[in-house]
Every structure is written in C-alpha cells, then in structure tokens.
Protein: Fe2OG dioxygenase domain-containing protein
Amino acid sequence: MKLICDLPSPKSLPDKYVLPPEKRPCDNELRDDLSVALPVIDLRGAMGDGRRQVIGEIMEAGKEFGFFQVVNHGVEEDVIQGFREAAAEFFRMPEEAKLKYYSNEPNNPFRVFSGSVTSHTDTNDIRYWRDCLKLRCYPVDKLMHHWPLEPEIFRERLAKYAVEVQDLARRLLRLIAEGLGLDDQFFEGDLTGGETMMNVNYYPSCPNPSLTLGIRPHSDRYILTILSQGDVSGLQVKHKGRWIGVQPIDNAFVVNFGLQLEMVTNGVLTSVEHRVVTNSAKARMSVATLIRPNMECRIGPAQVMVDGDTNPPKYRDFTGSELIEAYETTAGNREALLEMFRIHHTKLC
Structure:
C-alpha cells in the first residue's frame, strides 16, 4: 500500500477516507478563528524563585484543559528544527526507499504506515488522512540501530532530539509530582522506564477536509506526551463539550496528560480527548513523543492520592502491558478504557 504522500494529488477525496457523517468535523470546527490559546507556561522560572508559580500554572492548566504549551523549555531551536527537517526529508524520499519500512505490525521498533483504520471493528476499512512514522527513540544507544541510514542526517538529529525531549519530560514530571504533593522523583523508575515512543505524523493537504480527519478523537494512553506541532494548525482539544483548535507557537511544545497519569493520580489530573483536522492548503507534520512505563511494572493510584473512605482508589492496579491491551481494545476511547480499570464501590446505607 502506498503512503498518502506518494499518491498523485487527487481532486476529490478517495472513498476509503470519507468518514460516516456522524464522525466528520462540522464546517464551523474547521475555521481557525475558533482556535483559543492554551495556557503558555514559561519554564525558565522553574529554575529559580518562580518554581512554585510555574508548578501552580502547570496544575491549573492541566486541570482546566489537560493540555498546555511550554516555552523556554531548554530544547534548542536548532535541535527541534533539525529533526523536523530530517523527518520531512524522510517523507520526501522516493517511494521505493520508504517501502522497506512499511508495516502494520505494531511491535516493529521502526515502521511506516498510512491511513490508520477508524476502528478495530470496522468492516468498511475507512481510513484517516495520515501517514505515520512510528518508532522507539529512547534509550538512544539501545534503539539507534533500528533507525534508517537514510536520509543521512536522520540518525544523528533524531538522537539529539530524543535525548533533549526526554530530559524535558523528566523535568516536567518532577514539577507535576511536586504539584501533587509527591516526592519530586515519584515518576522516575518503572512508571516511566519503558522505551519511549515517537509518532511523526504527516498530513498531506486534503481535497475535502470536511469529510475526514487526520486522527480520530482519542486520549493518549501513557503518562505524558510532548508534541512539536510546527507552524500549521490542526490539533483540536475537547474543552467543555466543544472542539477548540490549538494555535501553533514558534518552537513551543504542546504537553498533555495520558490515561496512565489520570489513574495514578486517582482522577486529580485528567487525560483529555483530542483529534486532528486536515486542511486543503498545506501539509502538516507533528512529532509526538510518548513517555511510557515499564511494561511489567504495577500501576495504580499513588498512596498519597487516596484516603480511606473519603477518597478511595478509583482504579485497580494493572501492568503496562494490560494498559496497552486495553487501549487497543477500546481504540483510545477515554471512558471505555477507564471503565476497564475502574473500581465500583458499594455505598453502605
């Protein structure tokens, strides 16, 4: 199967990308003027006297939106742009050069696929308007040999980017831990000790954005996602029952909480649904880095987040592997996944 970016530019949307009417974005949801500014947090203050303020801003933004943007985050602009250029060059390679990486096997450490299906139960094989380069990016020394040798700049630039974004994730999780009243190293170790995943999402310009989506509505599964969305809008977040667009900011990262974090915090922090719409004028590329747990570690509400009868644990313990299986079963549906792990307490009269 070809990547969408390798197809001749169609004048109309091919049938297999046309979603049922109830799954399509409304016309007014495709307008940029509906975009709102997510809270923008300057992480420079976290290094000094402003640490408590930054922590407060993260917690407030997380509870209100489940998303925020960070600037002055310590990842150099040339590192961000350098890897984005390398990834774009990968998608521009000839079809035959990319074909050897094409796979629908989810356990491959480096693969390319196109037009993910709308659901595991769909029989019509309707697909989303997205090409994706999915890889494991950290620890670098362990995983680099899986990465392609072409384009020539790819490995070196990915290595630099992965290391710096991993460090940013570690710093953010320490701030989040402090904001929750946990030890600042609470999230280190097995809770974030799995191989870090990366999705490089490429959305070609689309003949009819009103008929399709780039990615379905979903919540992320793991503890934290750090996204470089570039300068083209398309990401939308569910907020108070409506879809709002996330305005791009130069060299900022969009940060959002995953379902694992929601369950570890016993629901104090939530993983919010989001999706991607397409546009007819420009291609869009985003780079999502997903911080994952060790697959065999036990995950459940932190002891500090529960309190006997007044605030009992809402979720049972589970492993990282169980989380992945549940996510695949529910196709990323937030409520369906949480229900698989929810504890239903019986109230005594």
Remarks:
- The first strand starts at residue 40 and ends at 42.
- The chain is about 25% helix and 20% strand.
- The mean pLDDT is 92.
